[in-house]
Design a protein that fits this description.
The chain is an alpha+beta fold and about 375 residues long. Helices cover about 55% and strands about 15% of the residues. α4 packs antiparallel against α5, α7 packs antiparallel against α8 and α8 packs antiparallel against α9. The site of flavin-adenine dinucleotide has 23 residues, from β1, β3, α10 and α11.
């Protein structure tokens, strides 16, 4: 059993870490204040090569795989979880297109997505259909040469940044009555709606997408009619959940780094608080969560890259790591005393970001249902 990351993944880690420190870190405060995704960042991520990590070379990617993707999202999220979620949702879209798209669809959309002409998104959640996917009410009515979409998607990451959106709507009844589509920006009847302002992950673009008698040509059907539920479940289960686990992992790492630094710098009773046993325990607890979380994330990604079932392990990683990040962030704020409540210290942001990651990609309760179903089968 080899716990070393493959060389190419270690190179990805190094490159993304340098990029995050040099290019993303200076943008964090601006993202917090303006709550906007920086205009140049998609192209910079494209130049770095991380937008095509799960896309074959013939369509402009590097295809380094899901472990490399996890490490990239982790490293970006260590500096900005808002950029982390934007990157991981982009990968959901490229993975869905890569796995279910026709050759023509892949050739049309993937190279631009890998370059960072825009960021991709997967728009599944609706006001009536979050955890309850079948509760969605968006419809896609077949007409001569395509479909007419009506409905509304909410809480969608990258929704104003995407040139082409992967989405799902009802073409019939029940799980087989859902189909997936690629909808291009500028299609009449399709618009990005309100921009949501969130507790955390500020700067990640989140909002709604509206379809009003939006005519989508038949060639933009992703997979076959009726494949939408399979595409949605696979994209969320094997892309969204591990992606959010990696985002939370980056937050956990930052909680650890900030806590260690502060514990060594802050002196009380004439010595650094790192020498107080209560502080040592707090740091040890965060470190234990960090290590456990890291291996859950890497194992799920390794399973995916090995072509094995990874749905349960990915869900387990999402469920565990997003909660662990909240616990670690709370502990990190406590270690900082009053400074933890001050806006100039990163831990307040980490706490807010960690909270938002709990529901994104599927809630803890849904995670427990999936894991329990497998455990009790
Ligand atoms: C920052 C952010 C980014 C997001 N980005 C995207 C995106 O890009 N694309 C996209 O499609 N979606 C996105 N989402 C939506 C996200 O996937 C949903 O929020 C999530 O699936 C939960 O759905 P909901 O918010 O409707 O909660 P609800 O389903 O309304 O759940 C409310 C509560 O009920 C609980 N609950 C629900 N069902 C059960 C059950 N059976 N048993 C026990 N408890 C239950 C939940 O755990 C939760 O506590 C994003 C969300 C956030 C916060």
């Amino acid at each position: 059993m080899d716990f070393d990351l493959p060389r190419e993944v270690r190179l990805v880690r190094r490159a993304v870490r340098e990029f995050a420190d040099a290019t993303v870190a200076p943008l964090v405060e601006q993202m917090e204040q303006r709550d906007e995704f920086p205009a140049t960042l998609a192209r910079s991520l494209g130049d770095l090569g991380v937008l095509g990590l799960v896309t074959p070379a013939e369509y402009g990617g590097s295809n380094l795989g899901h472990l490399a993707r996890t490490v990239a999202v982790e490293e970006v999220s260590r500096v900005s979880a808002a950029v982390g979620i934007s990157l991981q949702v982009h990968h959901m879209a490229t993975a869905a297109l890569g796995e279910f798209g026709s050759d023509a669809q892949k050739a049309k959309y993937l190279p631009a997505l890998c370059r960072g002409d825009s960021l991709g998104t997967c728009a599944i959640t609706e006001p009536t259909g979050g955890s309850d996917l079948l509760g969605m009410t968006s419809t896609a009515r077949a007409v001569g040469d395509g479909y007419v979409l009506n409905g509304r998607k909410c809480f969608i990451t990258n929704c104003h940044l995407s040139e082409a959106v992967v989405t799902v709507a009802k073409t019939g009844e029940g799980p087989k009555g859902i189909s997936a589509f690629i909808v291009e920006k500028g299609t009449p009847g399709f618009a990005a709606g309100r921009h949501e302002h969130k507790l955390g992950l500020r700067g990640a673009d989140t909002g709604e997408l509206v379809f009003r008698d939006c005519h989508v040509p038949r060639e933009n059907l992703l997979g076959n009619e009726g494949d939408g539920m399979t595409i949605a479940l696979k994209t969320i289960g094997e892309g969204g959940r591990p992606g959010m686990a990696a985002t939370s992992l980056g937050i956990l790492q930052a909680c650890y780094d900030e806590s260690v630094r502060f514990a060594k710098e802050r002196t009380l009773y004439g010595r650094p608080i790192a020498q107080l046993q209560a502080i040592q325990w707090g740091v040890a607890e965060i470190f234990a969560e960090l290590q456990a979380s890291r291996w859950l994330c890497y194992h799920a990604s390794w399973l995916k890259d090995s072509g094995r079932d990874c749905g349960v392990e990915s869900t387990l990683a999402k469920m565990y790591v997003s909660e662990a990040a909240v616990n670690a962030a709370k502990k990190a704020v406590e270690i900082h005393g009053a400074c933890g409540a001050m806006m100039e210290y990163a831990v307040q942001r980490l706490f807010r970001d960690a909270m938002v990651c709990v529901s994104a990609g599927g809630t803890t309760e849904i995670g427990k249902l999936v894991v329990a179903r497998a455990a009790l089968a």
